[in-house]
Amino acid sequence: MSSRETGNSRLMRILKSKIIRTAAVIVLVMAAFLVIFARPLSTPILKTIIKHRLAGLTYHFEDGLHAGLCGTGSPMADIKRTGPCIAVVAGKHLYIVDVGDGSTRNITLMGFQTGKLDAVLLTHFHSDHIAGLGEVMLQRWAGGSNKTPLDVIGPEGVETVVEGFNTAYSIDTGYRIAHHGPETVPPSGAGGIARPFKLGPEEDASVVVVDKDGVKITAFKVDHRPVVPAVGYRFDYKGRSLVISGDTVYSKSLLKHSQGTDLLFHDALSPRMVGMIRDQAHVSPVPSLKRIAADIPSYHASPEDAAKIATEAGVRHLVYYHIIPPLPSSILNNFFLGDAKDYYQGPITMGVDGMLFSLPSNSREIKKKNIL
Ligand SMILES: [Zn+2]
Ligand SMILES: [Zn+2]
Fold first, then answer.
1. Model-level pTM?
2. Please, what is the end-to-end C-alpha distance for the chain in angstroms?
């Protein structure tokens, strides 16, 4: 018996060593194959990827209004949300409302043609809404070889913001002209040009800031005190409409200007969650956190406030953006929303970077998808 066992174990040892040797040979052959052929193989693969990637940047938008969420966050770092930014395609025109930090990358990745950008519209001049302006101006200039600066539409004060970015980017502008030549980057097209508008003294004052090719954009006052001026924007095109709140608390002006709109993009701050941050702020190494967490609920709407507006205005779909605080997981969405669903029975979407909403012209359809 023992000699048979010894024979079996010897056989197993031989088999094992053969398997190991065979595996080693296979690994060596594969390694050699990769060393010899990796470069010639990777070149056509990479070429195909680049071709598809570049072609993907010409996303087709059917006639209508489209709103791409290029930034749904706030100044607080959120892995799913960069600074506030909404790109609006209206017919053949492209506008961007606010350009928060990091939003320029999303604008490009989502397939918006920055080189063909008609204008940037700013709701107010808090840093989280303007931080990406320099990059958007640069992308629009270099990406489209534009010969005139980018229109930057905003309430009074926009001149200071645009002038500052133009100055900050002036040295870079010189580098790019010297490197790529004036035909690729015409010197006259660098930077932006401020297009300020005035609003009357009434709480619900408004003014039409764009009216061309059937596209109407109306700026209206909102309440983000002590930040003054602060506005929201309403877009109308071929029977479709959308409203972007900018930063505001519950606002009767916003209510008036959102009447019957298809889509309302509303800022929202959860007082319960921010209150929890304030109460735990003593463990943070950031000494100012407690005060900031105590201050910010006073000038942002709660999810319930936005839901009330959506119902009272007869909005057809409510989208939250400029979400505070950061939500590391969608599991927290319901906690964030609180009682909002009691105040608004229509569809609610928690905005995330990369979402695209489409309102085909002369229809009632509202399409939603994620293109990031
Ligand atoms: Zn603000
Ligand atoms: Zn903000």
1. 0.87
2. 68
